Amino acid sequence: MIHTILFDWGTYNALNTLPKAAMLGMRLTEIPPWDFSRRMRGREYFGSYSDFAGKAFTTITAHAPYYNLVSDSPEIASRIIKIIGSAVKRASMACAEVFNSHIGWRICMDQLDLDTVADVVKKLLENTLGACILALKQLVLEGRSVVLMRLKLS
How far is CA 131 from each of CA 8, 40, 103, rounded to the nearest angstrom? Predict the structure, then answer.
């Protein structure tokens, strides 16, 4: 059996840098975390991102805002879920296939941190499922592969 190694490359690209990235031959694009922190970036921005990037790139990914998913404060944990949930919904508007998030600082330094992150991801999926399902339907209709969330340990 012959295996082909496919090397795609890309970087953070806001909507205004997508044409340059496509012209340079990038095949991947990642919505930068700061795009999710700007309140003025709504349905129109992320829809336009999807329209352009869907034609020019093989994969659209999104990088979550830089917030720790683990917190020892229930109030902060609740705000994090709200902020990241909003980012997931916006990423789905842009048809992102992957949503990357850093776990952040560890509090307990044991399995409890991972359990907490698993609970956060579960809440995010519960709170954003409707938006994700609509985005998934669109991606499947386009014949794209789908990964809802991938976490990076930091």
Answer: 28, 19, 23
